[in-house]
């Protein structure tokens, strides 16, 4: 009888050990699976963000060739470094050749009764995008402010970056003809460019005139430059950065977010 009990004990002990190992193996697999899903989700978000930025680069310049569009070329390089599959990258570049042009918008928001954010949006469905932004904003105590209030907090301008075989004096004369507000010369290792200052969000007339004058349009950039800054604590800054990350990762139409936060 004692021998039988020992056999039963050993049998159940063996079963328990096997079940424990099976559970441990299952748990390990679940952890691996969950980690992979998180990685895949983050990877997909990066690819989606890069895809939208490529679209923006083409819309801004009207140029879908990475060989002559520096901003697009830089994004292609970022995609390669992020290990975007070549088939995916080629598909994006092919798709943006016939990309629809959306309109540029600025949505000013004040967060936690403190700093102001300038949310740059490129879309032809602004109401839809604003609804999605409002849904996220509620969780971070952020609200849209009136354009009149925003205009006192930021100097807003659109820059047109263009190239032409000429000097700054000639570019200044061309700026007057094109009705640009100002122009400055930019030099880097790749060459000399001219940065024309135009009406905020409406550079079309300047771009048209510059093309007539023989310029190659490389890109345009909307900038909101703060007239002053607002101090925040490290905890507040952490929360603001979470808000920004949430917006840019979930709403592809957001091009960038500028602010008037003072450096810590």
UniProtKB/TrEMBL annotation:
* InterPro entries tied to this protein: Integrase-like_N (IPR017856), TACO1_YebC-like_2nd/3rd_dom (IPR048300), TACO1_YebC_N (IPR049083), Transcrip_reg_TACO1-like (IPR002876), Transcrip_reg_TACO1-like_dom3 (IPR026564), YebC-like (IPR029072)
Q: Where is the TACO1/YebC-like second and third domain?
A: 113-260
| Domain TACO1/YebC-like N-terminal per the UniProt entry, residue ranges | 27-97
Quote the cellular component terms of the Gene Ontology held in the record. Answer: mitochondrion
Source superkingdom: Eukaryota
Tell me its family.
Belongs to the TACO1 family.
**Which PANTHER family would you find in this protein's record?**
TRANSLATIONAL ACTIVATOR OF CYTOCHROME C OXIDASE 1
Per its record, how is this protein called by name? Probable transcriptional regulatory protein LMOf2365_1554
From what organism does this protein derive? Bombus bifarius
Q: Which gene encodes it?
A: LOC117213513
């Amino acid at each position: 009888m004692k021998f039988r009990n020992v056999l039963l004990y050993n049998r159940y002990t063996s079963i328990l050990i096997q079940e424990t190992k099976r559970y441990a193996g299952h748990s390990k697999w679940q952890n691996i699976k969950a980690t992979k899903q998180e990685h895949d989700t983050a990877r997909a978000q990066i690819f989606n963000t890069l895809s939208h930025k490529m679209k923006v680069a083409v819309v801004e310049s009207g140029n879908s060739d990475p060989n002559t569009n520096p901003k697009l070329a830089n994004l292609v390089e970022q995609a390669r470094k992020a290990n975007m599959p070549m088939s995916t990258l080629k598909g994006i570049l092919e798709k943006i050749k016939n990309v629809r042009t959306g309109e540029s918008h600025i949505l000013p928001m004040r967060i936690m009764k403190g700093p102001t954010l300038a949310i740059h949006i490129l879309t032809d469905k602004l109401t839809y995008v604003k609804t999605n932004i409002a849904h996220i904003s509620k969780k971070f105590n952020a609200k849209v402010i009136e354009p009149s209030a925003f205009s006192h907090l930021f100097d807003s301008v659109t820059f047109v970056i263009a190239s032409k075989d000429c000097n700054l004096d000639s570019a200044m004369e061309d700026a007057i003809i094109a009705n640009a507000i100002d122009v400055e010369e930019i030099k880097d290792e790749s060459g000399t460019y001219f940065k024309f200052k135009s009406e905020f969000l409406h550079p079309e007339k300047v771009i048209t005139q510059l093309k007539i004058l023989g310029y190659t349009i490389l890109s345009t950039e909307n900038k909101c430059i703060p007239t002053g800054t607002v101090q925040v604590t490290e905890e507040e800054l952490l929360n603001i950065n979470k808000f920004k990350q949430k917006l840019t990762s979930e709403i592809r139409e957001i091009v960038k977010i500028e602010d008037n936060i003072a450096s810590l």
